[in-house]
Amino acid sequence: MEKIGFIGLGIMGKPMATHLVKAGYPVFVLSSSANAAALMKEGAVLMNNSKELAGNADIIITMLPDSPEVESVLFKDGLEHSMIPGSLFIDMSTIAPATSIAIFNTLQQKGIGSLDAPVSGGQTGAEAATLSIMVGGSETAFKRALPVFEKMGKNIVHIGKPGSGQITKACNQIVVGLTIQAIAEALTLAKKSGVDIAKVRAALLGGFAQSKILDLHGQRIIDRNFKPGFKIKLHRKDMKIALQTGREVSVPLPGTVVVASQMDAIIAKGDGDLDHSALALYLESVSGL
Amino acid sequence: MEKIGFIGLGIMGKPMATHLVKAGYPVFVLSSSANAAALMKEGAVLMNNSKELAGNADIIITMLPDSPEVESVLFKDGLEHSMIPGSLFIDMSTIAPATSIAIFNTLQQKGIGSLDAPVSGGQTGAEAATLSIMVGGSETAFKRALPVFEKMGKNIVHIGKPGSGQITKACNQIVVGLTIQAIAEALTLAKKSGVDIAKVRAALLGGFAQSKILDLHGQRIIDRNFKPGFKIKLHRKDMKIALQTGREVSVPLPGTVVVASQMDAIIAKGDGDLDHSALALYLESVSGL
């Protein structure tokens, strides 16, 4: 079994790495946080630094907040110099597609493979090992990583060239954000008009307007349950990546701009830790509800 | 069986009225169009004017393009004066909720019941008798109409008070329009980035971004099939009703405004007869694709 270095043991990384340990992979970790301690109880091995971790690992997985953190681990902490030629770097963070492409190009010159493999499904999906995984990179690298992915997710799609996993994740976040906006506008209009929003949700779910988001977030809005789930401020970060990519390839994203600016208003109010379904709360508040 | 007067034998009204005739209802029609002729072959009876139609009907159904046409039939052609007390007026057109409420109030004073019962599902749903029907009005009137609705649709929901059927339809059109916008922005970003949009659709369908629209319209966009379906210019009319209702109850609808203005751009180009999934064509064209 390939030896795995896992960097980034947050609310996503901890359960993902735990699945790998439990599946019998030798897993090496860096941080001495509480999450790392829990993982070490399962059998993970603590390394002193990224050089030591890289020296022990066939595959290094990162699960970090954003592009700068991934770049810092690779290029500032020197991971790029410590990785063994023939090893594979898999970044499962959601970062800018352009950064993923730059990482691929840099590591390729050193004989190190690289995949961008962002996930969708949140903490629940990470814990249940049912994440969707969108993968960009070579077919060879994808096939090597697939057994590892299968321990963490269910819907695993090799999209294509390096960066295409991140592009797909950006698309996913655009669709999720705009669909929540759609539900929020519809249910706010119904509510302010004095119409039972539970009946509106039921009627719409039976027709062309059906979506997983109308089902789950529609219910959240009815129940006034805005506990995350997926935090507004994290979704806003993903919208930044989508808008930045749109600008790089000259694709205007007028709906995404609207949703991102509403997220900014919610964050400005101090509510950035609420679930992203709280887009409805914002619309309600500016509607005098 | 109740005798039914049916006004508005267009691409929706014709198949809907045909189901009623075939179910054994006596159906009276007004127009002497080709559609009416086809319906008369099935057993519908042609009336000379709305007064004669009203004198024969227990239930009058209208299926017309917009609010002014419904108001014209009722108030200008004098239907309101010809309907028999105790009869029931069912407007299945998509019109302004405020107009539906005004109609309800006017007819109630004459002892005539009234329901707003707009549908979703398009020509295909009308022909297959699988329309979603969203109904506003009294419980008594809803129960009386239900056997008739069941000949034309499947997902029949009594939402609540008069006008609430139209509010729900406006919500439906907001959600459908914004979800198409979401898919269009995502797939245009992917396409311009050189990523296979069929794989993006497949990856997103397996996760939280799933929707009937990603499934059906995503496939249309991949297949370059923009034959209606549901025409942009008709959806634009429904967005007008949604925005007008938003203004009346002071609910800002920023996403709906974006989608409506893109529909205007498509109509200005002369493409208003394309399917509403052609929102993607607009985004592609302004992205230089």
Could you name the key traits of this structure?
289 residues, alpha/beta, Rossmann fold, 2 domains, six-stranded parallel beta sheet, three-stranded mixed beta sheet, 14 helices, 9 strands, 55% helix, 13% strand, elongated
Describe this structure in words.
Two copies of one chain form a homodimer. The first copy, chain A, contains 14 helices and nine strands. Chain A folds into two domains: 157 residues, Rossmann fold (3-Layer(aba) Sandwich); 120 residues, N-(1-d-carboxylethyl)-l-norvaline Dehydrogenase, domain 2 (Orthogonal Bundle), CATH 1.10.1040. The model of chain A has no long low-confidence stretch (mean pLDDT 97). The longest helix of chain A is centred in the middle third of the chain and has 29 residues. The first copy, chain A, is elongated and about 65 Å long. Chain A is 55% helix and 13% strand. In chain A, strand 5, helix 6 and strand 6 form a beta-alpha-beta unit. The first copy, chain A, is α/β, with parallel strands linked by helices and 289 residues long. At the A-B interface, strand 9, helix 9, helix 10, helix 11 and helix 12 of A face strand 9, helix 9, helix 10, helix 11 and helix 12 of B.
